[in-house]
């Protein structure tokens, strides 16, 4: 049927005080150039129109809403043609129509509001045309996000959520199922392109990658369709997001079957996911397991009965019959007028799109409530005058009411209703037919983390669709060169770094006192290292220190027991006891180096070591000088011993020791040693050590000890051959030789030893030098006292002294 002509006519109409326009597709069409050809009936359009009529009649029969004011309607067939849609809208707006063929034009019959269109692209054309006139347009099914732009479409409203919410909901749902590598096919028009653009943006924010995004339209050539097929076949993703309508997918199903494109998880929009006609066309289960969003199920009391209660004379096409004249040769079945809708099954009798019918119903009621408020209706409406479009539009945007079934209706600042969706899963029923099973819901009014709720146990077939498998904790994602972010390699975290979640994009550095575990998924406390009393090395060094102190005390007891014997008296017993006391302190001061460093132990260990060793060396130096002076005193006329008698010996020891004490005091007051966490030597350990504070102070202490030891060694070396049976000088020489060798070796070992071994080296040097002094100086005397008492006599002591 060619619809080209100067005028268009309403398919259904009724006069009233205020007219509501309706534009619905009663026929499918095929457009060629500027001609529009009707192909077949679209029963959905009849259902939408019946919903509008039902709402209008219900309002006219209401005593509480618009009392005394009758609503009329003019409903046009758009034939799914954008051009036809615009022409019908112009007829509604201008009243430029003919109601009866060959009659002159009637007076203009402007409408208060237009309900429709069903699709986004025609709605955009209409909204941009009538927007300047501020004539409201309320769509029940046009979901394109672009229609929310009030600068372009100031008078457009809708009772179905915008694709902005649907696209984001689809992206969140895809992410919820773990699909990060998906393909997409969209309808090549405003609905598909806008919806897919929003989906792509949301998907990128959620870390989802599109392997491909293809366009399709029903007029595409076979070559274009084959390119789509080739792209899908060559892809690795197993999920396809379909921003299509039912007609598009119906065409593609046949092509997919021919090319064996099966086994994919489809994700659908409300345009097709709940369509029983499409489900019936899917004979080969290509869409089996499809999941998507649908307008929530709802009911409008009485609407279903009203839609099905039609006059067979007006709807013969529903029953596949016709009314004929006698002698008509057509073989088509003749209508009897008693056909029953309950006995047939087609799109018209299918009530699954009731939520969309409800959207038409709510649109009419939104108009009625706005009129009721504007006209100041109470018991009756004081005027039946149609409000001016601008005032009416502004009030319509702010309308807020509840339907008789309790559903709340209002528009946001963009003219959109709140977004709520059911999540639908296609499952096989008992007769191997598709069933639409609700497995979850999405509500945009909820907090972001609670908007999506899915019952995973109810879903049939949720495959894996990723470019790369998830990176486990302990690794990070590294995007593969030249590929989307969803294609990545899993790189183990470096030492000291962790990732404690799956698919981490970076490894986190552990805090200073922590280190990564073996799996690099947790920061654990670093091992703290110091020379402890509990470990083997600490126990051994402690035992040796105590043993050294014990031997020293034992020797002191022996010397005290035999203090009046010649060998003890001949070697300056007072300095010997002082030396033994200082050696015991040297052994015991090594214990201050063991254990966890503290502020007091750090200051004590170095100062105690420095002072006790100087006391020790001072005593040895005093004994060496005594030996030299004693030899000088045997010379005729020599009175040197009176200048280095016991008082001078004590004073020299005290002076040498006080100098070291002064150095230590200066060190402790300027920059004392302190406990320090060394994090640099080992990455995985913390070395607890005593930082020197002032390196100058530490080396000054060691240098002073070294100077005294060197002086003592030189004097002892000079006196080593003096004629004395028990010449202490040669024993002192040996002890100083050991002492100097130990501490000269100590310096490089101390500098190069790591961690607790630095402390162990220092303790070893203290113990070795202490034992060297103890054994070299006192062991020979103890040997004579204990094992050779016969030699411990004055006669024996003097027997080897040559006579001058």
UniProtKB/TrEMBL annotation:
It is a multi-pass membrane protein. The chain crosses the membrane at residues 537-562, 574-595, 607-631, 651-669, 698-719, 731-751, 763-787. Its main location: membrane. It is found in: Cell membrane. One of its GO terms (molecular function) is G protein-coupled receptor activity. Residues 537-801 form the G-protein coupled receptors family 3 profile domain. One of its GO terms (cellular component) is plasma membrane. This is G-protein coupled receptors family 3 profile domain-containing protein. It comes from Pygocentrus nattereri. The gene is GRM7.
